[in-house]
Write a structure and sequence with these properties.
Blueprint (H helix, E strand, L loop, with lengths): L1 E6 L6 H11 L3 E3 L2 H8 L7 H19 L5 E6 L6 H15 L4 E8 L2 H7 L3 H6 L6 H14 L14 E5 L5 H12 L2
Parallel strand pairs: 1-3, 1-4, 2-3, 4-5
Helix pairs in contact: 1-8, 2-3
């Protein structure tokens, strides 16, 4: 069992890289908006109810996958590295898999903000993330989150052997997926 957590700021390409990784491996993609979009039909993700439901759905999916005979899961996440509760959340998720004998791999993506703003408008992103279709609001959220939180790591912040950081500003999702496969022998 493998869990690949792809994290980084909004519109860095987490889902698209995850889609390519899913195509090239037997891992299933569980991008963060799968639960956000489901819950948004009833509650805003920013509401207490929205966050609670998203958290519950994700946790139950993690538990079921970790206990299954699947090869593994690719999970995408916007990780506010300046927020201790977000570190605790990642530890909780990794523990679910490690307690079942699974391996966890952390993949951090970073890209220039100008490129991210362009990626924020792509057809693939808008197809899979309907709550991002209001481009003005989505762009405002992207910039605000970047101003208010640290979404990429500092040098030496991650020392885990199953960690890699990729600047994908000019790399294709296929190239990044291949880099992940080769680095972690997936």
């Amino acid at each position: 069992m493998k869990l690949v957590i792809i994290f980084g700021p909004q519109a860095v390409g987490k889902m698209t890289v995850g889609q390519e990784l899913e195509r090239k491996t037997k891992l299933k993609l569980f991008h963060n908006h799968m639960t956000i979009e489901l819950v948004s039909n009833f509650f805003s993700y920013e509401s207490k109810s929205g966050k609670r439901l998203v958290g519950l759905f994700r946790e139950e999916i993690f538990k079921e996958v970790a206990a299954s005979d699947l090869d593994g899961l690719i999970f995408t996440y916007v990780w506010g590295l300046d927020i201790p509760a977000k570190w605790d959340y990642i530890k909780k998720v990794t523990t679910i898999f490690e307690e079942k004998g699974g391996y966890v791999y952390l993949v951090e993506l970073e890209a220039d903000v100008e490129v991210r703003l362009e990626r924020n408008k792509t057809e693939n992103r808008l197809l899979h993330k309907p709550t991002k279709k209001n481009l003005e609001q989505s762009e405002r959220d992207l910039l605000k989150t970047m101003e208010n939180h640290r979404l990429n790591s500092l040098p030496g912040e991650f020392e885990e052997k199953n960690y890699m950081k990729i600047n994908n500003t000019i790399l294709t999702p296929k190239t990044v997926a291949q880099m992940i496969i080769e680095r972690f022998e997936i």
